[in-house]
Amino acid sequence: MRAVVIGSGIVGAGAAYHLSRRGAAVTVVDACCQGGATQAGAGIVCPWVDHPEDDDWYRLTREGARAYPALVEELGEDIGYAKVGALLVAEDPVDLEPVRTLLRRRHAEAPEMGDVVDVDTPTELFPPLSDGLSALLVPGAARVDGRSVRDALLRAATARGARLRTGIATLTGDGEVLVYQADTENGTRWSPAVAAASPGETEPVPADGSEATSWRQSAPLAAAPAPVAPASPEALRLTGEGVPVEADVVIVAAGAWTGEVCRPLGVELPVFPRRGQILHATMEGVDTAWWPIILPRIGPYLLGFPDSRVVVGATVEDVGFSPRITMGGLDEVIEAGLRVAPGLFNATVTETRVGLRPVYAPGRALIGPLSERVVVATGLSAYGLTAGPFTGEIAAALALGETPPIDIAPYAPA
């Protein structure tokens, strides 16, 4: 079975890994577009606090989290995965009651979350926190390094014969793959909103959380951009002839660019980018490796990693294909981070990252066949590092004609 995977983010890498394990001849094609979501993800694996009114969304993220321990063992290398627990914090303890009730309801079917307990002095677990916060500890929560996971999955796939190619992959009407040369020196700037009459960026509007449906996922900071004209290969100014890549099956896991890749099939997939800006800071001489994840009711989240590193983020912005770090975005992240953890005031900002999270307009992830030979897998939004490898496994099963590990009907293309 010859399989082509378009996109080498967390979902595409997961698909390549599972395809290669089943003996498929795999080719992964990635355009190296600026703004890929995987490289900018924080790495929070704590699905039990989210999607209280959407069991299908929750099931996907829960199973994604549940699959990680076995995946870590299979890969046999450090991918930054560690069960450090998560502190749900609030200034008013009353605000913790809804999520406490949710966790109690879900515990029987997800005992891996651990026994949720109140924490009287959360600063003992995460010293920079503000005094006086109330907190619940979810001990089963984990953090993971998204880049390390993706790279490990791709290494394992190539060890079984998978090939990695850099280029802009497009589809023909019957699902054949054509690959055009990409500008790898400066990073490919393939962004449909720029190539086809950009509507321009909208000014961020602070979210008050009134539209939030999950503990850590607040409403976007800006209104959705105006509709953008479809970007054809001609509009993207592709030069030369596309090189065909033979494939019996194709998995499109191109993140926010998935709709553009699949348009030649005659389908309109309303997948759009949601920008997230995030920063990394270091606290010299402080051991942050086992600090728990900090999840306030409404952003920002904070989590520790080895090397005295703390991650703070992220913005939630609907501004089109614009993978830029902005003054306003960093201001929002820093101000909100210091409000929750004033002890980070003297931490050194060492890195900023930005990613375009793929969002499927109907609301859930998008996983399923588009034709007899093309499968799509994207739309994980802020939950890519939680459910990405598992979603890749689902896509691989579909491509090979196998029964997927969960019912995919709720995620089928509309």
From TrEMBL:
Oxidoreductase as UniProt keyword: yes
Annotated region Disordered: the residues are 194-214
* Cofactors (names): FAD
Query: InterPro entries recorded for this chain?
Result: FAD-dep_OxRdtase, FAD/NAD-bd_sf
- Its domain of life reads Bacteria
Q: Where is the FAD dependent oxidoreductase domain?
A: 3-398
The identity of this protein, by name, is FAD-binding oxidoreductase
Task: Provide the species name.
Answer: Nonomuraea composti
The organism's lineage is:
Bacteria, Bacillati, Actinomycetota, Actinomycetes, Streptosporangiales
